[in-house]
Amino acid sequence: xxxxxxxxxxxxxxxxxxxxxxxxxxxxxxxxxxxxxxxxxxxxxxxxxxxxxxxxxxxxxxxxxxxxxxxxxxxxxxxxxxxxxxxxxxxxxxxxxxxxxxxxxxxxxxxxxxxxxxxxxxxxxxxxxxxxxxxxxxxxxxxxxxxxxxxxxxxxxxxxxxxxxxxxxxxxxxxxxxxxxxxxxxxxxxxxxxxxxxxxxxxxxxxxxxxxxxxxxxxxxxxxxxxxxxxx
Length: 232
Description:
By secondary structure, the protein is an all-alpha fold. The chain has a single domain (2-226), classed as Fumarate Reductase Cytochrome B subunit, CATH 1.20.950. Helix content is 73%, strand content 0%. It contains twelve helices and no strands. The model has no long low-confidence stretch (mean pLDDT 81).
């Protein structure tokens, strides 16, 4: 089992991470190319200061929440914080990143990692519950949305169990292997599913430029879909 773990923590980790990086880089290149073409044709006089200021507000998106989606949107926002910080800055993970990137990274403490892990899992359950039981979310949910939520839960759950042997009812090495395999599966899936928004969200947020909409068109679309209370 130790040799198996070393293989998946070493060569397979590097391979799947490389697939993710190359896939996401492809998305970015395509989007930048399309954006440059759009600017060259029609958007040379776009209100860039206003567009960039509005884009920056999405770092803390609470003013953009639509009535009736506050719980879902809040859980999604908090979930993304844990999804970024725990995989990147957990001390055990930092060792892997340093081996691949050949660079030193900061690490968070175990207590903070546990808190963020449990918070992320709670948010994932809220998101899953909303998609299952709230009609407006269920109407726009596809099977892949449920699958992705469950897949994201897997490395967080197994990682927490592996780091807390007293709470783990299974063999430690088995749980660790599932943790590694589920994370690497996500690496491979990210560029080919909606998880690619890890890099594409920036382009989505500059929609007046990216989609070549007329000024105010985004507000009109949101109002048509959600009513006058919608804010974008």
